Amino acid sequence: MKKLDKLSIEGKNYKKAIELYTYALNFNENQIAIYTKRGGTFYAMQDFENAILDFSKVIELNPKDISTIYFMRGLSKTLLKNEDKLGGCSDIKKAIELGYNVSDLNGLDEYCNFKK
């Protein structure tokens, strides 16, 4: 998995990383870590629709710490070509409720119209 992570993050060979993550899911489609990494790779590729699908699958599989996943899915929704501000802010609010720290993200409460 470390080699694959290098492909995706350091080498920026996102297309190959997606291919390999997808291949790995053929053997076990309930791998939270693979969906998380593939969702992050889709996000890095600015393929927000597929990032949302993978982050949603992670939430469905119900890992112990999903605040980051809710945040990433929410952020992806706000970056869609046809922005889903309501859905994105709802996910970000859920992330905050679950303990995600957004104190470094200036303007988020203004954008979503809620207090941190």
Description:
The protein has helices at 2-10, 14-25, 32-44, 48-61, 67-78, 85-97, 108-112. The protein has 7 helices and no strands. The protein has one domain: Alpha Horseshoe (Serine Threonine Protein Phosphatase 5, Tetratricopeptide repeat), CATH 1.25.40. The mean pLDDT is 87. With 116 residues, it is mainly α. Helix 1 packs antiparallel against helix 2, helix 2 packs antiparallel against helix 3 and helix 4 packs antiparallel against helix 5. It holds the Pfam family TPR_8. This is Tetratricopeptide repeat protein. Keywords: Repeat, TPR repeat. InterPro entries: TPR-like_helical_dom_sf (IPR011990), TPR_rpt (IPR019734), Ycf3 (IPR050498). TPR repeats lie at residues 32-65.
Order of helices and strands: HHHHHHH
Sheet/helix structural class: mainly alpha
The CATH topology turns out to be Serine Threonine Protein Phosphatase 5, Tetratricopeptide repeat
Strand content: under 5%
- How many angstroms does the end-to-end distance come to? 36 Å
Largest sheet: none
Mean pLDDT: 87
CATH superfamily membership: Tetratricopeptide repeat domain
Give the overall silhouette.
globular
Level-1 CATH class name: Mainly Alpha
Low-confidence stretches: none
Total count of strands: 0
Supply Rg. Answer: 15 Å
What helical percentage do the residues reach? 55-70%
Number of helices: 7
CATH architecture: Alpha Horseshoe
